[in-house]
Design a protein that fits this description.
With 374 residues, the chain is α+β, with helices and mostly antiparallel strands. The protein folds into 3 domains: 12-121, no CATH class; 168-218; 224-371, 2-Layer Sandwich (Heat Shock Protein 90), CATH 3.30.565.10. It has 8 helices and 9 strands. It has a 5-stranded mixed beta sheet, covered by helices on one side. A two-stranded antiparallel sheet has the order 1-2. A two-stranded antiparallel sheet has the order 3-5. The radius of gyration is 40 Å and the shape is elongated.
Length: 374
């Protein structure tokens, strides 16, 4: 049966009230039963009439003493026991209703916050007061979830706006080139084709980067043991021609550093870091050093390069999408501004972290810390 057709049952407050009242009624009935059994020990089965002369003792007295039997005791005891049970039932229902309402009051605040969140408002917080109990823990956890959702939605909105801007740029350039070609039929078509090819290549690279970033954010991948030192070696061999073309010395060294993850994504992470270190370097005489090592609980990848002196405030923003860092890029390597954003997303998708630090002599030192395998 679906949630939309499910019958509504009694409220939790009503069920708690009935539970409190039932428990109180049961406790009262057990207490009266104990009293009844205690009285039965001193009452004969049948009523007895005893002559007072047989009892002896000084003083005036009636000629006979009546001792009630069990049936007489029951007739006297049962109505009063019923009144007591009725009183307990009324007290249990009334007191249980009040206590249940007091106990469940925090759930009303949590429900209201949930409804607001479902309606699209993620800025509301419960901020439940009182002692640190289960309801307080639930409310604090819900507040934390809302804060993370609010930050994530804001980040996605910024990313969507930036992505739209970045994708609009090549399309605008393409449209401008085509309009110029239409207005000037004598224009050199060879240069036009080359320009359109370059713009189209940039757009394809940007879309592929966005798709890779989305894949990393979804964490939709299988995991296996991966040695970061082998990935570093593969990335440096692949990008060695680019480094030689830019006059950059590329070095790779390190120890065995095994983590658990998706090999293709981790290779992309390593390649992006090495590529960024090459293109964001000195115009001549630059160096890039790639190294790996293992700690007891982590596998680390370090990529360090020379370059211009960097402001720490700028370094803190370099892993944001579409942040290129003015003055850091060699000519012809503007990129999409997603290299370090992809690296951070892949690292976080593997339960790792990315840290950036400016070198004192210029350039950047990047460290990726991932959980060690096993």
């Amino acid at each position: 049966m679906s949630a939309t057709t499910r019958r509504r049952g009694p409220s939790v407050r009503l069920r708690l009230t009935l539970s409190y009242a039932g428990f109180l009624l049961l406790a009262g009935a057990l207490l009266l039963a104990v009293v009844w059994l205690f009285l039965l020990r001193y009452v004969p089965d049948q009523a007895v009439t005893v002559a007072t002369d047989d009892l002896g003792g000084p003083g005036p007295r009636s000629p006979y003493l009546f001792i009630p039997g069990r049936s007489d005791l029951w007739e006297a005891f049962a109505p009063k026991a019923a009144l007591v049970l009725g009183f307990l039932l009324v007290c249990g229902l009334g007191g249980g209703w009040l206590l249940a309402g007091r106990m469940l009051a925090p759930l009303g605040q949590i429900t209201e916050a949930t409804r607001r969140a479902a309606g699209g408002s993620l800025t509301h917080r419960i901020r439940l007061r009182g002692r640190d109990d289960e309801f307080r823990e639930l409310a604090d956890a819900f507040d934390g979830m809302l804060a993370r959702l609010d930050a994530h939605v804001a980040e996605q909105q910024r990313f969507a706006a930036n992505a739209s801007h970045e994708l609009r740029t090549p399309l605008t350039i393409t449209q401008t080139l085509l309009e110029l070609a239409r207005k000037d039929p004598t224009r050199d078509t060879g240069r036009l084709v080359e320009s359109l090819y370059a713009v189209n290549t940039r757009a394809i690279d940007l879309i592929e980067a966005l798709l890779l970033l989305s894949r990393a954010d979804r964490r939709s991948f299988a995991r296996e043991d991966v040695d970061l030192s082998l990935l570093a070696e593969e990335a440096t061999e692949t990008l060695l021609p680019l480094a030689e073309a830019g006059g950059v010395v590329l070095e790779a060294s390190g120890d065995l550093a095994v983590t658990t993850g998706e090999p293709a994504l981790l290779l992309q992470l390593t390649t992006n870091l090495v590529h960024n270190a090459i293109v964001h370097n000195l115009p001549a005489g630059g160096r890039v050093r790639v190294s790996t090592h293992r700690e007891p609980a982590a596998a680390l990848l370090h990529v360090e390069n020379t370059g211009a002196l960097l402001d720490p405030e700028l370094v803190a923003t370099l892993a944001e999408p579409f942040q290129r860092g003015a003055g850091r890029t060699q000519d012809g390597h503007a990129g999409a501004g997603l290299g370090l954003a992809i690296v951070r997303s892949i690292a976080e998708a593997h339960d790792g972290s990315l840290s950036l630090a400016a070198r004192s002599g210029g350039g950047l030192r990047v460290t990726v810390r991932l959980p060690a395998a096993g």
